[in-house]
Amino acid sequence: MKFQFPLQTTLTFWSQVAPFDLADSEACATWTGRTNDQGYGRIQVNGETRYAHRVAHELFHAPIPKGLVVRHRCHNPTCVRPGHLVLGTASDNAADREAAGRGRVHPSLSDADVVAIRYAYATGRWTQAELAETWLGDPAGQRTIGMIVTGTTRGSAGGPITRRGNGRKPPRRVEVAVL
Question: What is the pTM of this model?
Fold first, then answer.
């Protein structure tokens, strides 16, 4: 028995997909609608926000069994081409990510590292981005540092938990007039 979406959902879905070459099986069908921070498409279906690639799989195949994920064979999070989407487990998806070289970017931190980061941040002398640059090698790791210093992650590691909102803002730049 094939699962059916309402016609309006199907029309709304395909109106947010860029034209692609049907003859080229390697060509991705790029989602042009809303996306999340990782680039995965998002769409409203019956008042619920869903991932576009999951909806694409369901449009052409069947409902996704509980516990399974929809994987991208093309490794392109914006792709919704049904031929590029396959079912698998979360472990399969993680193995795909590692094989494609998109694994963990930041180094693992020990409990001692976490405690040192929390004490350094508690002094107020460093921003989360500066600590991310120092400990993770990338200021883009600020979110990870923010979760550490607020105790959202690694709560049992020890050290002072800081609840200061969005972190310390960098000093204002002073405009200098050139004569």
Answer: 0.58
